[in-house]
Backbone:
C-alpha cells in the first residue's frame, strides 16, 4: 500500500512532465524543426493509444477469466496493419488529400460533403465512445483505490460507492481540464497536434515499459520462468474450460480490426496526424510489434495472479496487486503510472477527436444558420471553434461519467470496451464502401448507419445499462411489452448466442443490407459523384483535381473577410498575400473587388476544411460564392480511367463495325455503279444498233434515188415510201427513248383520271386488232369487270396494253396463234392476263425482258420494235401503283399479268 | 513501376490472407489443447510465434519495396492512350 499523497503527487508530476513535452514539441514544430515529431517512430507510438487501460488492466483480467480470448483484440489490428497496402494506404492518402479532420468528416466528405451524415456520424461516435471513456474512469478509480489501499481485499465490491463516484467525478473533471489545456490551445492548420502526439508517444513508451517491467518481475522474480506459470493448472483450467476459438473469437478479431480504423481517436492518430507514407510503412510492422510486446506478458501475469493471489482478487487489477502483494511499492507505482498513462492518453485523444467532430459538424452548422449570431469580427469563427471544442470536451467526459454512474460502474473492463468497439464498427461499411464502391450514395450511408446504430443501441448498449431501472430490467428479460421475440439479447428468437456476437451479427447485417440497398436505389448528386471518384480513384489522379470541375466565383474581398474570421488575421493575410490572383498580388485592405478564380476558391475551401471540416467549409464558402455549378461534362471527365479505357475500346469497336458497314456499303455501291456502267454501255450499243438499221436503209435508198436516173416513178415511190417508213421508225424509237428516260427521271407528266378499266382495254385491243388480223392471230377476250374503275392516265394505260398485245401478236410463231385476254378483280386490284401460245420466254430471261432494248436473240432480227416497250410498260404500271410481271403460264406460251389498283 | 509495386501489393495481400487463415478456426483449433512444449501450451507458442513471423515478413516486405522502388528510374512520361 502506498500513501495517497505519494500517488497523487507522482501523478501530478507525471502530468506536468507531459505538459512540458507537449509544450517543447509545439515550440519545436512552430520553429520548423519537425524532424523527430514527424518521424515514423513517434507516429507508431501515437497509434499505440489503442492500448488503453483496457489493455493495461483489462487484458490481464480477460486472460484470467477467459484465457487466450484477449489476443483477438490485438490480432485484429495486426491484420489491418499487415495488410496496410490494401486499405490503410488508401485511407491515409485520402485523408491527406482531402484534409480530413475526423472520421465523421471523412464519411461526410465522401458522400457529397453531407451535413446530415456528418451530424449522424458525430452522434454515433460520441455515443459509441461513451462506454470507452467510462472504462478509463473506472480503471483509474479502481487502480487508485487498489494502490492506496482503499480496498483491502483486492476486490472491487461496491462498498464505498459514494466515495468512488466522488472520485470519479474529480478524475473526470481533472481529465477535462487536462485535455482542454492540451488539445485546444489553438486551432491548427490541418488538425495536427504535434505537442499532443509527442506527449502520447512518451506515454506509449511509459505504459509499455511499465507492463514489461511488471511482466518480467512476475515471470522471473515471483515465478521461475514462463513455463511454471503457463503450465499451472489454475490457468490451463481457464484456458481449457471453454473453446475460445469459436464465433466469439472471430467476432472479437473482426471488431478489433474495425476499431483500429473506426475508433475516432485511432482515426485521428492514424489518418489525421499522418504526414507522409513513410510513417505508415514503418507503422505497418512496428505497431504489430508493439501489440505483440504488450501482449507477451499478459497471460503469465494472469496466471501468476490466479496462482498467488486470493481467489476473490479482481483479475482486472492483477498488474497492480501482484507487485503490491510482494512488497514492490516502486514497481507498483510504475505500473500505476503506466495505467494512468494509458487512460489519460486515450481520454485526451478521444476527447480531442470527438470535440473536433462536435464543433465542426454540430456547432458550426448551427452557428452558420443563426442569423442573429454576430459573426463579423475577424477570427470570430476561430474563437467559436475553440469555445465549442472546450465545451464538447466537458460534455464528452460528462457523458462518460454518467455512463459510469448509470451502468453501476460497468462490468469487466474488457466488456465495456467491446460495447464501444461494436458501436464504432458501424462506420466500417460506409468507409470501406466509400473507398472502393463508386456507386455508394449518401442515402445508403445514412440508412446503413442509422440501422446499424439503432440495432447496436438496442441489442448491446441498452442491456449494458440494465438494472438501473425496473423498466429496462424487465425489458431485457421479457422483451418490450412482453413480446418475447423483441428481447434485446435474443432478437427474433435468436436465443443462446453470446450477447456480443448476437449484437454484432444483427447490427452489421442490418447496416450492410440497408447501405447496399439504399445506395442501389438512390442516385448520387453531382458533388457526391465527384467526391466518390476522388476517393475511389485517389491513386489515379493528382491532388485536388476537383478544382477544375467546380465552376464558381467570388470577390476576393469577401473571401478575405471570411478567411479572417475562420483563420484569424495573420493566417489570412499570409494566404492572401502569397496567392497570386489573376496574375496580381492582392493588396490587403485595398478597396479591391477582384474576382477570385475557381482554383483559388477550391484551395481556400480545402484550407478551411482543415479547421472546420469539409461540410462546414463548403457551407462557409457557399455564402460568398456565386454561380456555383458542377458541370455534368466535368464529372464525366473524371470518371474512372479504367472506365475511359473501356469506353474507348467500346468506341473503337463501334467505329470498326461502322467502318465494316461503310466498306460493305461502298462495295455494294461500287457493284451497282459497275452494273449501271455496264447497262449504260449496253444501252448505247443497243441504241446505236437500233438506229443503225433504219439509218442504213434510209441511206442506201436515198443513194439509189440520187444516183440512179433510170428509176421508174413507181420504183422511186416505193423507195421513198421505205425511207419515210424508216424515218418514222427512227422517230418512234427516239420518242420511246425519250419517254423511257423521262419515266426514269420521274419527269413524265401523267394525266390521271378515273376511268372504266375495261374501256381502256377495249381501246387497246381495237388498236391491235388490225395487226392481229394481218398476222392471223385470234384474240379472245373474257372476264366480267365492266364496272371496275381505275385511276390512271388512260392513254398511257392503253399504250401498255398495246405494247403487251403487239408483242404477243408479233412473237407468236404458233400454227394457230391465239392470244387470251382475261380480266378479273383480286385483292382490290384490277388484273389483266395476256396469255399466248407462242414460243414463250425462257425462265432465265423472265426479268431480263423488262430491261431496255431487250429482245430475245432468237426472235430479234426480223421483228420490228425498239425493245423498250415492256420496260416502259412496267415503269408506267408501277407509277399507277400496280405492276407488270411475267408469270409462268400454260405449257408453252408466255403470260403477262398487269395489275392496277381498282378505285 | 506499377507492375513491381503491384507485385509487392500482391505479396502483402498474401501475407494478410495467411495471417487471417492462421489465426482463425479451423487452423487455430489444431493447436488448441495440443499439449505443451517446454511447459508452454502449444497454442500459446503457435499464436505468438506466428504473430512474430508475420511482423518480420511485413518488415521485410516494406524494406524490399523501399529498396526496389528507390532504385527504379523516374517513371517515363505516360502516354495517355485513352484520349
Residues:
Amino acid at each position: 500500500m502506498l500513501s495517497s499523497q505519494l500517488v497523487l503527487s507522482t501523478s501530478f508530476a507525471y502530468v506536468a512532465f507531459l505538459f512540458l513535452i507537449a509544450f517543447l514539441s509545439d515550440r519545436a514544430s512552430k520553429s520548423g524543426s519537425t524532424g523527430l515529431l514527424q518521424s515514423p517512430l513517434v507516429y507508431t507510438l501515437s497509434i499505440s493509444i489503442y492500448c488503453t487501460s483496457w489493455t493495461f488492466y483489462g487484458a490481464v483480467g480477460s486472460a484470467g477469466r477467459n484465457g487466450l480470448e484477449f489476443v483477438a483484440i490485438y490480432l485484429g489490428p495486426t491484420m489491418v496493419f499487415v495488410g496496410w497496402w490494401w486499405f490503410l494506404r488508401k485511407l491515409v492518402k485520402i485523408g491527406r488529400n482531402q484534409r480530413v479532420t475526423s472520421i465523421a468528416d471523412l464519411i461526410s466528405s465522401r458522400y457529397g460533403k453531407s451535413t446530415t451524415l456528418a451530424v449522424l456520424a458525430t452522434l454515433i461516435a460520441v455515443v459509441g465512445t461513451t462506454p470507452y471513456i467510462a472504462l478509463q474512469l473506472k480503471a483509474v478509480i479502481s487502480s487508485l483505490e487498489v494502490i492506496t489501499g482503499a480496498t483491502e481485499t483486492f476486490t472491487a465490491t461496491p462498498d464505498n460507492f459514494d466515495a468512488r463516484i466522488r472520485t470519479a467525478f474529480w478524475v473526470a473533471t481533472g481529465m477535462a481540464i487536462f485535455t482542454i489545456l492540451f488539445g485546444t490551445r489553438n486551432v491548427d492548420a490541418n488538425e495536427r497536434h504535434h505537442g499532443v502526439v509527442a506527449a502520447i508517444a512518451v506515454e506509449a513508451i511509459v505504459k509499455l515499459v511499465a507492463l514489461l517491467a511488471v511482466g518480467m518481475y512476475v515471470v522471473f522474480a515471483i515465478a521461475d520462468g514462463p513455463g511454471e506459470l503457463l503450465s499451472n493448472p489454475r490457468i490451463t483450467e481457464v484456458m481449457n474450460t471453454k473453446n475460445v476459438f469459436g464465433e466469439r473469437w472471430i467476432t472479437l478479431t473482426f471488431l478489433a480490426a474495425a476499431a483500429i480504423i473506426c475508433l475516432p481517436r485511432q482515426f485521428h492518430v492514424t489518418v489525421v496526424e499522418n504526414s507522409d507514407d513513410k510513417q505508415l510503412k514503418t507503422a505497418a510492422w512496428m505497431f504489430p510489434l508493439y501489440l505483440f510486446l504488450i501482449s507477451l506478458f499478459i497471460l503469465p501475469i494472469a496466471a501468476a495472479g490466479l496462482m498467488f493471489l486470493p481467489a476473490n482478487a479482481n483479475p482486472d487489477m492483477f498488474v497492480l496487486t501482484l507487485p503490491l502483494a510482494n512488497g514492490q511499492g516502486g514497481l507498483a507505482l510504475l505500473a500505476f503510472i503506466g495505467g494512468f498513462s494509458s487512460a489519460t492518453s486515450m481520454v485526451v485523444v478521444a476527447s480531442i477527436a470527438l470535440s473536433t467532430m462536435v464543433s465542426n459538424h454540430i456547432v458550426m452548422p448551427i452557428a452558420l444558420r443563426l442569423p442573429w449570431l454576430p459573426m463579423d469580427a475577424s477570427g470570430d469563427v476561430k474563437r467559436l471553434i475553440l469555445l465549442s471544442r472546450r465545451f464538447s470536451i466537458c460534455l464528452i467526459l460528462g457523458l462518460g461519467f454518467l455512463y459510469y454512474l448509470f451502468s453501476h460502474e460497468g462490468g469487466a473492463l474488457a466488456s465495456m470496451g467491446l460495447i464501444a468497439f461494436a458501436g464504432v464498427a458501424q462506420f466500417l461499411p460506409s468507409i470501406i464502401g466509400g473507398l472502393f464502391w463508386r456507386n455508394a450514395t449518401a442515402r445508403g450511408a445514412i440508412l446503413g448507419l442509422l440501422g446499424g446504430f439503432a440495432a447496436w443501441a438496442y441489442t448491446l448498449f441498452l442491456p449494458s445499462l440494465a438494472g438501473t431501472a425496473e423498466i429496462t430490467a424487465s425489458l431485457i428479460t421479457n422483451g418490450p411489452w412482453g413480446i418475447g421475440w423483441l428481447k434485446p439479447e435474443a432478437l427474433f428468437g435468436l436465443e443462446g448466442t453470446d450477447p456480443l456476437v448476437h449484437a454484432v451479427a444483427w447490427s452489421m447485417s442490418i447496416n450492410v443490407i440497408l447501405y447496399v440497398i439504399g445506395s442501389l436505389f438512390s442516385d448520387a448528386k453531382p458533388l457526391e459523384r465527384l467526391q466518390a471518384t476522388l476517393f475511389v480513384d485517389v491513386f489515379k489522379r493528382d491532388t485536388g483535381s476537383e478544382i477544375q470541375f467546380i465552376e464558381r466565383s467570388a470577390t476576393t474581398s469577401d473571401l478575405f473577410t471570411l478567411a479572417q474570421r475562420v483563420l484569424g488575421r495573420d493566417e489570412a493575410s499570409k494566404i492572401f498575400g502569397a496567392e497570386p490572383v489573376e496574375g496580381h498580388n492582392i493588396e490587403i485592405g485595398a478597396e479591391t473587388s477582384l474576382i477570385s478564380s475557381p482554383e483559388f476558391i477550391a484551395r481556400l475551401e480545402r484550407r478551411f476544411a482543415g479547421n472546420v471540416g469539409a461540410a462546414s467549409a463548403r457551407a462557409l464558402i457557399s455564402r460568398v460564392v456565386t454561380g456555383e455549378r458542377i458541370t455534368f461534362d466535368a464529372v464525366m471527365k473524371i470518371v474512372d480511367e479504367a472506365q475511359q479505357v473501356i469506353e474507348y475500346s467500346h468506341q473503337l469497336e463501334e467505329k470498326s463495325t461502322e467502318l465494316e458497314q461503310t466498306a460493305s456499303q461502298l462495295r455494294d455501291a461500287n457493284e451497282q455503279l459497275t452494273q449501271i456502267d455496264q447497262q449504260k454501255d449496253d444501252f448505247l450499243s443497243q441504241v446505236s444498233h437500233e438506229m443503225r438499221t433504219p439509218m442504213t436503209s434510209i441511206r442506201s435508198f436515198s443513194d439509189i434515188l440520187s444516183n440512179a436516173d433510170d428509176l421508174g416513178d413507181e420504183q422511186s415511190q416505193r423507195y421513198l415510201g421505205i425511207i419515210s417508213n424508216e424515218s418514222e421508225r427512227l422517230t418512234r424509237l427516239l420518242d420511246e427513248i425519250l419517254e423511257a428516260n423521262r419515266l426514269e427521271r420521274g419527269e413524265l407528266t401523267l394525266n390521271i383520271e378515273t376511268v372504266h378499266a375495261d374501256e381502256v382495254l377495249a381501246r387497246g385491243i381495237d388498236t391491235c386488232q388490225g395487226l392481229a388480223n394481218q398476222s392471223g392471230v385470234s384474240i379472245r377476250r373474257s372476264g366480267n369487270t365492266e364496272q371496275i374503275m381505275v385511276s390512271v392516265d388512260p392513254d398511257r394505260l392503253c399504250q401498255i396494253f398495246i405494247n403487251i398485245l403487239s408483242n404477243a401478236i408479233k412473237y407468236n410463231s404458233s400454227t394457230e396463234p391465239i392470244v387470251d385476254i382475261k380480266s378479273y378483280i383480286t385483292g382490290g386490284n384490277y388484273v389483266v392476263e395476256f396469255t399466248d401460245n407462242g414460243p414463250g420466254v425462257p425462265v432465265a430471261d423472265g426479268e431480263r425482258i423488262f430491261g431496255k432494248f431487250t429482245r430475245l436473240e432468237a426472235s430479234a432480227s426480223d421483228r420490228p420494235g425498239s425493245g423498250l416497250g415492256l420496260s416502259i410498260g412496267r415503269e408506267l404500271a408501277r407509277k399507277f401503283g400496280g405492276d407488270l410481271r411475267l408469270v409462268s403460264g400454260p405449257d408453252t406460251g408466255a403470260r403477262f399479268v398487269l395489275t392496277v389498283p381498282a378505285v | 513501376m506499377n507492375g513491381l509495386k503491384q507485385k509487392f501489393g500482391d505479396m502483402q495481400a498474401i501475407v494478410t490472407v495467411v495471417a487471417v487463415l492462421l489465426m482463425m478456426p479451423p487452423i487455430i483449433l489444431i493447436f488448441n489443447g495440443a499439449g505443451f512444449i517446454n511447459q508452454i501450451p502449444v497454442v500459446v507458442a503457435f499464436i505468438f510465434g506466428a504473430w512474430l513471423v508475420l511482423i518480420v515478413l511485413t518488415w521485410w516486405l516494406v524494406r524490399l519495396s523501399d529498396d526496389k522502388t528507390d532504385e527504379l528510374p523516374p517513371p517515363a512520361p505516360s502516354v495517355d492512350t485513352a484520349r
About this structure: Chain B touches chain A at residues 8-9, 12-13, 15-16, 19-20, 23-25, 28-29, 32-33, 36, 38-41, 43-44, 47-48, 51-52, 54-59, 62, 65-66, 81-83 (CB under 8 Å). Chain B has a mean pLDDT of 75.
